[in-house]
Batch of 2 targets.
Target 1
Amino acid sequence: MRIKLLLAFGMIVLLPVLIVTWFAIGQITSKIEDSLQNRVNESLDVALNAYTQFRDRALENAKILAELRTLQNYINHYDTEAMNLIQLVEIKRDQFDAITLEIADARGDILYRSYEAIPDRREYLYDSQDPTILRAIQYSEGISVRASEHGISVKGVVPVRTYADPFGVILLGYLLDDTFADQIHQITGTDVGIRIYLNSRVIAAAFAATAAGSREQILKEVKSQAARPEITQHVIKDGIRNWSYRETIRGNEYQTAFAPISGDNGEIIGMISVAIQRDNIDAIKRLSAIFLFVAAIVALILATLTAFFISREITVPLQRFVEGSRAISAGDFTQRINLHSRDEIGVLANTFNQMTQDLFDQREQLRKANQQLTEYAAQLEQTNLELTAAKQRIERWNEELEQTVKERTEQLEISNRELKKLHEMRTEFLNMATHELRTPITAIKGYSDFMLMGMMGEINDKQRKAISAIRESGERQLALINDMLDLAKIEAGRIQLEVEPTPLWVIAANNLHMIRPLAEEKGITLENQIPRDFPDVYVDKDKLTQVFTNLLSNAIKYTDDGGRVTITASVISEEHVQVSVSDTGVGIPPEDLPKVFEKFTKISNQPTRNEKGTGLGLPIVKLIVEAHGGEIWVESELNKGTSFSFTIPIFQYEAQLKEQAQRIERSLTST
């Protein structure tokens, strides 16, 4: 029997261990290769995201320049202010760290251009009547990517306009060079090599030093190489993304992946590649295979020795059990098995001995148990009768409850239909009232403007004053209607946010610029204390502008002549920033603070009682802020000033990139 156990062990344990070991080596090797390829692909995604942000930076900076009122004035009056435009262009190109900055007029002709003091930079300038410039004049802002003999340029192209047709174009350009490659290199990790190709030629690269050479030696060899024909075929001609292959650089083997770069006409003009060394991966694969084979051999030796001793401990006691069982089957209940083992077999022997002693006792117990079962059966029958009666009562209660629920459900359905009908009537009335009121008020405002401009005949001062009062009343009524419509849309859940990364400083500066004429009438000082390098926020730019417009208008309205209105901001967490609009005005009484965000609320203190307003601005502001996932509150002290503060989400692009790079590093380390 012992020989059979050993043979069974060989069939059951030895062969599966060898199969599992071989399969595990294959799986680990495959997982390591997949992990390396996943990291290469994720690093390529990080590089492409950085390239996208680089393009967005060119466009956003061009938009900032296009919104500068001073630059707009110089472009619109170029003949008289040419020198001012030249000086401003030089300053702004240096300020935005760009390689080129070009200004074109409404005809598409270049007014002035600025570029770095390097002759090669001139080839990145555009000519007059360039199709990109002409498209921008037709309100088509965008990003231009072009290739030249020395590299690839990325330009933000934005039309310059106020409220009329464009009267100029801004073209702000950057270059895909070694500096850009180093930026991606820092994000993806120092062991990841970056290359930027113009067609099949390397124009920028970033690699770390290795045992095979210094960083300068590797960069020299990389930049002297051209892409292999199959790479050019798959990536540049066929446009395949994440195409990967192995390559050797100064004796080191790398896993490399490529992604195409497209130009203005959609044609692929270059590539971005990432490369990760395979030396550590191959070493890990070899060590894993050796470790698994050694572990399997040691495990088999130990298992064989263990099986030998276990088989001996099992077969001897089993023989005694066979002899004892034969004696019991012959009617000898005095048979005992004498074993002094404390393991499971010893416990089994004690149990076997106890079994023979208990056989007669169990017969008596079975008789008594049968008698008790008869008594329990009678009790169970009585209990069943009681349960049947209880079940009948419960069924009657359920029927009554179902009837009650049915009646209440019908009543709720009737109420819901009535509420829906009332909501539809309210919406229809609001739309009709808005249309019917806005049309005549707009007409009144338009005719008032025509009369004030003298287009309908001469008017005297008394008539002008009366018409101006009519126009002002129309504007107030139109503002009230618009506020009511906005409030109704927001409360109905029909507000749609188009969130995007937005520079907070620019939004604040634009709103202060728009409100400045009202402040100058009262001699009020406006301050923007938000730093220019303040993190971007993730908001709907138009809705945030509406929030600033309401808060700044109220601040100027309730601030005495010579006062101050200030905008500040601070980062309060990884997800949100806090923005505050503060003034030195008359303040709000403590009893009115809880009501400032209620509809049609008017502050009761005397200095502000006669101010004009709809009473809907602050409720709209509160709903917009809450739609962004933020909150708003007010702090005020009479005769000292008021501060409205709100929170909005911050844009976390850099944190997302760093977290993704760390996750890739952890994944490779764990494998």
Note: The CA atoms of residues 121 and 245 lie 34 Å apart.
Target 2
Amino acid sequence: MKRWRGSVLIVGITVLIAAVISGAHVAGSNSERVDRLFVVATIDQSGRADVQEVIDYDFGQQDRRGIYRDVPDLQQGTAISVNSPTAPDGFILEDPLAPSRCNVSTTSFGDRQAARICIGDPDIFIDGRHRYSIDYQLDTLTVDGNLGVDWMAVGDTWSVDIEEVEIHLRAPYELELSSCVVIDSFESACQLEPVGPGHVRVVLTNLDAFDLEWDRPSEAVRIKATFGQPVSLAQSVPMPPAMNPDEDRGFLFGGIAGLLAAAVPAGLMSARASRAGKEQVWEGSAIDARYGQAQLSGYGSEASGTPPPPIPVARRSEAELRKMATVEYLPPEGIEPWQGGVLADADVKQQHQTAWLLQHAADGHVAFDGTDPTYLVRGPNPFDDAALDVMFSGRREVALGEYDPQFAAGWQEVAKRQGESLQDPEHWVAAGESMRNATGCFGVLAILVGFIMAGFLGGGGTISFPILMIGCVLLGGGMASVVTSSSLRVRTPHGSALFMHVEGFRKFIQTATLREVEWAAEHHLLSRYSAWAVALGESKNWCELVAQSTTAARLDPYGARVAGTAAGLGAVAGSSITAPSSSSGGSGGGGGGGGGGGGSW
């Protein structure tokens, strides 16, 4: 049975998971971070540097008093200016060895002491995004007797990620042999852009914070250059861009975005599968669909050899075929119960192997003896079957209820044989099976890629938001492809006709009464009908009726015994094929003036 209800539930759960992942990532991207760090260092002819920093700090939804900035080599008594248009901007320059007013422990990955600029008001808490401008002077950026510069423009002790960095270095000399590196566990080059005489800049994105657990410093940026000929340095200092708007993109926004991104492709893939999975059926009435070409057997003349005209083929959903099926009191001819079960479910299940075993019991090839444990014994009627030979492996009986490797191997052989019946071209459209396999493989691949993109690559802030959405699209579409791929097994007109006969007999088993059970016992059909009941998933009602009827046990004692075994045979066989489980017991960026880090308090 193509169970769309279960498929919709699984896809719906996946869509909700995608929404939760998306919401969590977007809310996380609103977590505390530096949205932009804009730094300008202007060196004069004496080697002193005026450093101007503009820090757009996003506190997210955290309540904080302000920020701190650790600056190596910053001396007490140095002129410092701090300004913020929207946040308290009072500050204290703390001694590196004194207790911190910010109440934040000092983090150091080098041997230099860093003075701390503690900015904010201990009695006022703020959140959201605020801009801080800090001006100070350093005498330690120049090296080799004022013949060059070595500047750690971004230090290695930042406690939060930095989304974007723009760095300007200005000097009254030509900047020769200039270089820029990003330092984390390794060093990677960054591109310096000439702006004018004695002026270079670099723009970077997504610098990671330090990780104390792994003893890993934050990503640092180091600029080095040699001074050449004097130049006339422009007097105007570069101005920072306007602060980004404080967008409130929290969990709700991310959840809705992820929900839509996953639900739309999931709906499209499900609709596609619903259309492509419709069965081929002979066009016309329900009678035409069930009997089709057989109704035209008398058409024309044998002497003239006139063949009957082909009946047009239509497409109907499985649900429509079920409605068209009428109750049939006899099972379809020419097929075994397990074959009817596989045809009805469009899949192989354990109940079909159980029905196979019950059919052999009905035919006298095997028998059941006892109930605790249940013994499977060779029956009085000899029968050559490779799977039975593997199950017994020369034994006369097999105790069911505990793992038996030979029985399990034979059971697996039955499942394999039943799976091959799904390739029967008389009942199944070959193109549908190919489409099912391709769709399933695509779905698995899409789920894996989508999970990586949404779960891992999509959590890095604004730039990764498109990656997050693509991941949600792949998750929703991929899961829909996987769970609906089984519906792409399409029955041929003959397979649909046989399916309707099987469905008609299932309706009989489902609605049977004691009268029908006793009729089956009178005609010695209890064991065969019990196999059909198990194959079609309707064993509960049928077996209970057999157990209630004393007449059935008197008229067909063997069939009643098989029916009694059928009720629990699936669980007993499952224990016999399940093996028992076994138990078993970075480098930092040293050197250069400036640097340090910062965070909030």
Note: The radius of gyration is 39 Å.
